[in-house]
Specification:
This protein is an alpha/beta fold and 261 residues long. It has a single domain, classed as 4-Layer Sandwich (Purple Acid Phosphatase, chain A, domain 2). It has seven helices and twelve strands. A six-stranded mixed β-sheet has the order 1-6-7-8-10-9, covered by helices on one side. The protein has a six-stranded mixed β-sheet with strand order 5-4-3-2-11-12, with helices on one face. The longest helix has 20 residues. Bound molecules: manganese (II) ion. The site of manganese (II) ion (MN) has 8 residues, from loops.
Length: 261
Amino acid sequence: MTHPPPLPTFWELLAPADWTAIDFISDLHLADETPRTFEAWAAYMRDTPASAVIILGDLFEVWIGDDARHAGFEARCAEVLAEAASRRSVAFMCGNRDFLVGAETLRDCGVLALPDPTVLVAFGERLMLVHGDALCLDDHEYQRFRAQVRSSAWQREFLARPLAERAQIARAMRAQSEQRKRGMAPADWVDIDKATAVRWMHEAGTPTLVHGHTHRPAREDLAPGFVREVLSDWDCDTPGTPRAEVLRLKRGGLSRIPLAR
Ligand code: MN
């Protein structure tokens, strides 16, 4: 028996009355090596009719510190974020790949930082928003790793290293995680702990959970009166069917908007 983790703080984001549509995206894993996914995202950020775009983590495949935002691929991404945020609200929650996106980048880009979890209050509804990794409790090895890299001591020590060294460490960490995943079929990848999710939802008064991380987009009943909407990952570079989808909340409810042609 593992003990359930203590309940988190349920920080609330109140949607302003003039918002008409709110988009959720996650798990784009943007990288210089996947230019089509980047282009699809940049076009989406420019053209979406939504009043707000809420990014629920893993926008970037890797982020090694805010001081990397001034050049190259990171600078182009920051430009897209800033341009979009000048015309609509943009909010960002960290994922397990981009947990080092910090206050400096978000402030520069005019993007609101969201804690994980956040309760969104919009159109008379309450939704719980998380990336998803913190609820994957069965993956003990990952939860130990997460506790380490989310500690301020680890982050201070890591961010004090030169950029090139950080890039090298990040590559090694990615290779290790890819190797772990290769040993498993996608169906065996860890899912969120549903009992804990329902406990959080019950406690926060949120009948709907929106999360990413698992790359298995679906709507699923977790318990009577509690439903989850899992966001799609994006991949427009791997040959085959491109994946790019937005979950959109309006007064009438949630809908999935496929973007890939
Ligand atoms: Mn993730």
